[in-house]
Amino acid sequence: MLQKSKTENSKAVITIRDVNKSFGDYHVLRGADLDLYEGENLVVLGRSGTGKSVLIKIISGLLKQDSGMVNVLGKDVANLSPKELLELRLRIGFSFQNSALYDSMTVRENLEFPLVRNRKNLGKAEIAQAVETVLDAVGLSQTINQMPSELSGGQRKRIGIARTLILRPEIMLYDEPTAGLDPITCIEINNLINEVQERFKTSSIIITHDLTCAKAVGNRIAMLLDGQFQRVGTFDEVFDTADERVTPFYDYNFIQE
Ligand SMILES: Nc1ncnc2c1ncn2[C@@H]1O[C@H](COP(=O)(O)OP(=O)(O)OP(=O)(O)O)[C@@H](O)[C@H]1O
């Protein structure tokens, strides 16, 4: 796992500075600052409705901030042309709760799909090799000819992550990766997030309400409070406080050591 000092010496692949975003009277992001460093797993915590999804949408260019700067992989996201934005999005892997597999396709076909659509220069053998590599990475080589309906929830999640990895993203964005999974499967997904970091050298933002997950995968934790990342650091640093906006997170979560 990355040491904190190493993380802080790395270059930022996402830089967010003084970002504001309102919906009507509701000022969701209020001068938010955040860096994602190359190679790190950064966990974003925050109560429901604090703006975590809004932030991810701004990073991926689906929403525009009202003011402030968002730079992703050297690009000023708010000022990209539609074509440049598409190119940037191909360098980002999204693992979202609603990124379901295609039920009518086998695992192999599900994994081939993004390559066939986005990497038109690849031959059959290269596609087959890429499918094998990502299936091996998520530990599910044996499911290659199965249908999604034959897989468990945890296996479907892993195949979803494999489908994202097949385009070799530089950044991974995980939105609540362990939501709705049993505790054993949660541990498997946490391990997978760490394996992906190591094997594919990705830089990742992981949004979660699951503190076991946060502790297991986060090189750093960033807590969104009142529209800003007011507590950023290691897990222990973030929770070593009597701040009443922070302590309930810890008190009400069961932490598996
Ligand atoms: N397109 C939109 N139009 C109006 N309001 C919006 C829009 N998108 C988000 N909001 C509001 O912004 C606030 C933050 O929403 P967001 O989805 O980012 O919360 P979150 O931190 O991801 O919450 P959760 O943990 O429940 O997913 C909410 O009050 C939401 O209603």
From TrEMBL:
Ranges where the ABC transporter domain occurs: 14-251
Keywords for the protein's UniProt record, in alphabetical order: ATP-binding, Nucleotide-binding, Transport
Superkingdom in the source lineage: Bacteria
InterPro entries named among the record's database cross-references: AAA+_ATPase, ABC_transporter-like_ATP-bd, ABC_transporter-like_CS, P-loop_NTPase
GO molecular function: ATP binding; ATP hydrolysis activity
PANTHER family noted in UniProt: PROTEIN TRIGALACTOSYLDIACYLGLYCEROL 3, CHLOROPLASTIC
Protein name: ABC transporter ATP-binding protein
Native organism: Pelobium manganitolerans
